[in-house]
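dude i think i finally got it to work??
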Amino acid sequence: MKIHSFWIVAVACAMCGCASNQPFVTYDEPLISPGGEFSKLPPAVQNSVRAEAGSAEIRNISKAYHGTAIVYEITFKNRDVFPPLYLAPDGSVLTPDMRVAVGATEDTIEAATGSAVSSVKLDDLPPNVVDTIRHSAPTAELDTISRLTSGSDIFYEVTFKDPASHARLLIRDDGRLLK
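look at this
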């Protein structure tokens, strides 16, 4: 009987030790880490962050529009040593007033990997360009999006997986369709 009582007391003590006054926390949004966000950045932007800040600990990464241009803002844990870094999708370092401070280096990835250097993700396009693509080819499956420049003009060339059903599009950065 003493052994039976001993086990009951031991189990009761163990259960009391496991009790906690910590509230149960539910998450309404996915947990986002700076490392996960960093991996979603275009390769040219990732390279610029590494070149400018090395292995500095990132606090936050945000993507915003300055007019029709996309700007990535990277903030660091140690703001005294590493002020916010502003980058264009091509990896150019921007000043806080969005002027180019350090131009992007010309990529040489194309020859090594066989992939297009100017490839752009749909998420990195200005909203007007996305709207033009959706209006011009609402059911088409995208193949590639390339960013082209001519002087100060920026264009996006869009090709589709089935070129027979949808011809390539050439769109200005303000969303106007050229072809």
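Confidence is low (pLDDT under 50) at residues 107-117.
im so relieved honestly
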